[in-house]
Amino acid sequence: MSTYTTDRASPFTRAVVSSMRKLYPEALADQSFDNTGLLLEAPFDPIRRQMNSVLLTIDLTKAVADEAIERKDCVVVAYHPIIFRGFKSLTLSDCQQQSILRLALEGISVYSPHTAVDAAPGGLADWLADIVTGHLPDPEPETHTAQPQKNPPETIEEDVVSEANTSADQPAEAKKRPQRPKMSMQRTYSQPTYPSHRSVDASKTDLAPSSVDHTRSVINPVTGVEGFEGAGFGRLVTFSEHQPLTHLVERIAHGVGSPKGFPLAIPQGKQVEDIQIRTVGVSAGSGHNVLKGVDADLLFTGELSHHEALAATEKGQCVITLFHSNSERGYLSSVLKEKLTRVLREEWERIRKEVAEAQDLTPEWEDAVKDEDVLVECSEQDRDPFGVVILQSSKQEGKPLS
After folding, report:
1. Do the Cβ atoms of 238 and 244 come closer than 8 Å?
2. Angle between helices 124-132 and 245-255 (to 10 degrees)
3. Are residues 157 and 277 in contact, defined by beta-carbon separation less than 8 angstroms?
4. Rounded to whole angstroms, what are the CA distances from 31 to 115, 225, 283?
5. What is the mean pLDDT of residues 191-214?
6. With 90 as the cut, is the pLDDT of residue 194 above it?
7. What DSSP element (H or E) covers 17?
8. What are φ and ψ of residue 59, in 5° steps?
9. Other Cβ atoms closer than 10 A to 79
C-alpha cells in the first residue's frame, strides 16, 4: 500500500472539518456572496505528516502561512476566505495563490467559516453584543474627552520672515510668506499599534459579560437550519435603562483588547459626555448591509464608509467602528479556540477509531491514528492592515468632538 495519497486528506483534517461544520454549519452563511467551507484540501503524506494542530486566523496572509508552515500545523482555519472567486490559473506570481500553493505543498489544508460564524447563536454577533452589555468593575469609570492643551510643545516651526532679515528690494508678499516647515528631529508619534488576541485574553477578567439588563433580537434571521434556532445576522440590543455613551466606549475598549483608539462619530452639536444610549445595532466586519435601516441610537461595527457614517449622524445616530477585522479577531481567542478544542477532541477520537478499524494500514498510518494530541492556537502574525499611530506632541491637538 502506498503511503502517499493524492485522493484524500489526513484523518485529522477530516476531524477539523467535521467539528467546524457542527459548530458553524455552512447553511448559516450568506450564500449570496460568501465562499465558506473546505477551500484547500491538502493530500495526506503519513511519512511527513503535520502536527495534530489547528491555527486560527482572521486573514490568511503570507506571514500567517509562514507561521503555519513553521509550526507544522495540519489545518488553518481562516475566518475570511482566501478564495472568493474561481481561478483561471494558479501561479506563484499572485501573493494569495502563492500562499495556497505553499500550504498545499506542505500538506496544510484551509477551512473558512466566515459568515456562518457571524450568524450562529453564540457567534460573532452575540460576542459583540456581550461586550456592549458587559460591565466593568463597580463603579464604572467616568470617561471624558480630553481637552486641547493650551501650550503644547512645538515640534514644527513655521516662521514668518521678518522685515529685519529680508532684503529691502524683496516684494512685500514674499516677506510675509511662511517658509518651509522645519521638522524637529524629535520623534513625535508612536509606532503603529494593533490589538492582539493576547490583549483580548488579558481583558477577560475586567469585563463581566451580559450583566446589564437588556434584551436582544436578530436583525436578519436565518431559518431552516435544524438545531440553530435564533440564528441570523446582526443583533439589536435594547437596554432597560439608558446607558452613557462613555460607558459603552469603555466596555468596547476593554472587550476588544484595549486598542489605542478607534473611530467614533456623533451628531454635530452634541457632546460625548451628554449622549445617552438605549438601543445598539451590532454587526461584525463591514456592517452596512446588516445595519442599514436599523433604528438604533448607536451603530457598532467593524467599518462603515464615509457616506454611510455621515448619513447615520445626520439622522442623530452615533457610530463606533473598530477597523474591519478588529471587530472579529478577539472572538477567535475568547470563544472559538475553546469551542473548537472541545468538539475536535470528540471528533478526533471518533475518526481515530474509524480509521484504525480499516484493514491493511501501513505503520505510518497506524502511527497517525495513534496520536491522541489535539491543539488549537491563535495566530501570532494575524492583524488588521491598519494600526493606530498616536501623536505624542504636536502644535495642534485637534478639535474636540462636539
Report:
1. no
2. 130
3. no
4. 9, 14, 18
5. 65
6. no
7. helix 11-23
8. -120, 135
9. 28
Q: What is the pLDDT of residues 283-323, one digit of tens each?
A: 999 999 999 999 999 999 999 999 999 999 999 999 999 99
- The angle subtended at Cα 131 by Cα 59 and Cα 324, nearest 5°, is 30
Burial group, residue 124, by CB count within 10 angstroms (0-12, 13-18, 19+): buried
Distance CA 322, CA 341 (A): 28
CA distance 400 to 271: 9
pLDDT over 90 at 391, yes or no: no
What is residue 157's three-state secondary structure?
strand
- Provide the 3-class DSSP secondary structure of residue 165: helix
Instruction: Compute the chain's Rg from CA coordinates.
Output: 26
Question: Taking Cα atoms as reference points, which of 155, 171, 153 lies closest to residue 163?
Answer: 171
Spatial CB neighbours of 140, under 8 Å, sequence gap ≥ 6: 247, 250
Chain centroid, CA 245 distance in Å? 22
Say how many Å lie between the first and final Cα of the chain, rounded: 74
Q: HEC states along 50-84?
A: CCCEEEEECCCCHHHHHHHHHHCCCEEEECCCCCC
74-94 average pLDDT score? 91
Q: Can you say whether residue 177 is alpha, beta or left, with left for phi > 0 and alpha for psi between -120 and 50 degrees?
A: beta
Q: Which is nearest to 229 in space by CA: 28, 35, 37? A: 28
Q: What mean pLDDT is reported for the chain? A: 84
pLDDT digits (tens, 9 = 90+) for 114-156: 999 999 999 999 999 999 998 776 656 565 565 555 555 444 4
Residue 140 confidence (pLDDT): 61
**pTM, two decimal places:** 0.83
- DSSP string computed for 307-345: HHHHHHHHTT-EEEE--GGGGTHHHIIIIIHHHHHHHHH
- Distance separating alpha carbons of residues 130 and 114, to the nearest angstrom: 20
